[in-house]
């Protein structure tokens, strides 16, 4: 084993988001709905420069591969301060980067071209806003604090990811998902409104509140933030959440109620007994089950699973499952799922965890949430409309059992998907991926910069081999359906790794890209907010 232990693998695989300040209704209403432009002298934000002891800690996120070197880091605590910081940077022609939780997988934020870095972590308030009839969450709040506050104050939840330290700002704009998404959809499906600081054609910064209301003149700005990804249109300062089918004004009814309890289960299979035939049977079982049990009316929308395929050098690979314990016959449903996955494989797995927990505690189960801010990472993604092809299974087996690569923490995390997500039209939000049954995260972690090329290169070749028949990427077809913008991957922009003829923006956004470009033209006509895979001006 390397210095990265088996436990550490769980701390860096992301799948699926400080203590948040909680405002009263009065305080929420006191905050201006559409703050006006303000001058830099008005209650300035905290600003940290290179000589400050805090600078090194503020110029890197969770992925230690990327470190920025801006002129300054701005830590605003109000929308007005964000307007001032953006306006000042725009007037001076300085490239802006925006950080919420710091979980960006590429150098979109920590980039040498960024001269002003806006760190949103001081804007982390959560409140019931009676005027908007919604739950307001500022962009710097972390998922763990959001879940805890929603649960304890109002007995409600959001179907977001299971990494507690992920920031809301980027997670929501890219359509975060997690263990409750098969039942309730993407987290972005619950956004009623968003406040965004934009820069107009004259270079003036202002804040706009855009809602999903049909008659809202800024509805396209709302739409762009339901899956268009972060850093492309402006600086998100806060969201207002309300379920699409919510009625009335009772805050305890504005978002879904969480399960009371959840069964959690983890089992693992030893590689030394896993022949190519047995491995293929296991993956076919898993994929077939997902195809048959991911409809929105399936009794299994309350079940979430991840099959975590790791390298043979690492040791056993595992399956983690969480299911609503309040479902009728929940224990039987779980057993039936586990039996279906293992049927005919011929290898008896080892059960390493099986418990029933209160839902809030189950969300913090190490089998479901993880983050290690001291490592270096590379990630990729893919959506699957069906299980794996024979060629894909063979490539997975060959690569995972390849002894030429001894890096232990590598994982292909195959998450269950579908359910409520797939009831929404592809163009109803900016996220078009609405008919998949599995969602994959491909990741590896290491510690030393000297090893970057070796680990990134092996990861690139692995992924390319699995999707070799479609140009090295999961193109939209009968089996696959592109990539997930929140698991951003710069390689899909490179013809050396994407020979499919399908551009990166179509892998992420498919037919919605043109509409996103029009939103870009309307709200960021000067292309102030940009990175390597941000929406391009038309």
TrEMBL record:
GO terms for molecular function: FAD binding; oxidoreductase activity. Belongs to the oxygen-dependent FAD-linked oxidoreductase family. Its cofactor is FAD. Transmembrane segments: none annotated. Keywords: FAD, Flavoprotein, Oxidoreductase, Signal. Residues 66-246 form the FAD-binding PCMH-type domain. InterPro entries: BBE, FAD-bd_PCMH, FAD-bd_PCMH-like_sf, FAD-bd_PCMH_sub2, FAD-linked_Oxidoreductase, Oxid_FAD_bind_N, TAT_signal. Pfam families: BBE, FAD_binding_4. Residues 1-30 form the signal peptide. It comes from the Bacteria. This is FAD/FMN-containing dehydrogenase.
């Amino acid at each position: 084993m390397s210095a990265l232990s088996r436990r550490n693998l769980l701390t860096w695989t992301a799948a699926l988001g400080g203590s948040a300040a909680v405002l009263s209704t009065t305080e929420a209403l006191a905050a201006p709905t559409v703050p006006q432009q303000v001058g830099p002298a008005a209650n300035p934000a905290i600003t940290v420069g290179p000589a400050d002891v805090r600078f090194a800690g503020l110029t890197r996120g969770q992925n230690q591969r990327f470190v920025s070197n801006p002129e300054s880091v701005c830590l605003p605590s109000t929308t007005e301060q964000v307007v001032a910081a953006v306006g000042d940077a725009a007037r001076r022609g300085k490239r802006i980067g925006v950080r919420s939780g710091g979980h960006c997988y590429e150098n979109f934020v920590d980039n040498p071209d960024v001269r002003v870095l806006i760190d949103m972590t001081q804007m982390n308030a959560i409140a019931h806003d009676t005027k908007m009839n919604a739950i307001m969450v500022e962009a710097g709040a972390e998922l763990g604090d959001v879940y805890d506050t929603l649960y304890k104050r109002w007995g409600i939840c959001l179907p977001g990811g299971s990494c507690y330290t992920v920031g809301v700002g980027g997670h929501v704009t890219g359509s975060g998902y997690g263990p409750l998404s098969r039942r309730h959809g993407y987290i972005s499906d619950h956004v009623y409104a968003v406040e965004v600081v934009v820069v107009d054609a004259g270079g003036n910064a202002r804040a706009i509140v855009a809602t999903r209301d049909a008659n809202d003149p800024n509805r396209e700005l709302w739409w762009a933030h339901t899956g268009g990804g972060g850093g492309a249109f402006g600086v998100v300062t806060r969201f207002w959440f309300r379920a699409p089918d919510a009625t009335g004004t009772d805050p305890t009814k504005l978002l879904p109620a969480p399960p009371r309890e959840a069964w959690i289960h983890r089992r693992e299979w030893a590689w030394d007994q896993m022949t190519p035939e047995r491995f293929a049977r296991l993956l076919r079982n898993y994929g077939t089950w997902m195809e048959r049990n991911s409809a929105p009316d399936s009794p299994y929308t309350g079940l979430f699973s991840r099959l975590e395929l790791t390298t043979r050098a690492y040791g056993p690979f595992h399956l983690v499952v969480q299911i609503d314990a309040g479902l009728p016959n929940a224990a039987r449903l779980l057993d039936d799922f586990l039996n279906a996955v293992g049927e005919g494989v011929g290898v008896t797995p080892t059960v390493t965890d099986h418990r029933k927990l209160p839902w809030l505690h189950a969300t913090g189960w190490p089998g479901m949430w993880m983050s290690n801010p001291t490592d270096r990472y590379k990630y990729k993604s893919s959506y699957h409309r069906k299980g794996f092809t024979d060629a894909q299974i063979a490539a997975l087996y060959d690569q995972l059992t390849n002894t030429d690569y001894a890096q232990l923490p590598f994982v292909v995390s195959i998450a269950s998907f579908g359910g409520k997500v797939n009831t929404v039209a592809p163009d109803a939000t900016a996220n078009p991926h609405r008919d998949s049954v599995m969602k994959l995260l491909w990741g590896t972690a290491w510690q030393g910069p000297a090893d970057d090329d070796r680990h990134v290169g092996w990861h690139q070749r692995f992924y390319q081999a699995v999707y070799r028949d479609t140009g090295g990427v999961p193109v939209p077809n009968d089996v696959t359906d592109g990539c997930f913008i929140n698991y951003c991957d710069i390689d899909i922009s490179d013809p050396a790794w994407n020979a499919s003829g399908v551009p990166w923006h179509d892998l992420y956004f498919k037919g919605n890209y043109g509409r996103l470009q029009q939103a870009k033209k309307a709200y960021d006509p000067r292309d102030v907010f940009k990175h390597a895979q941000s929406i391009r001006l038309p």
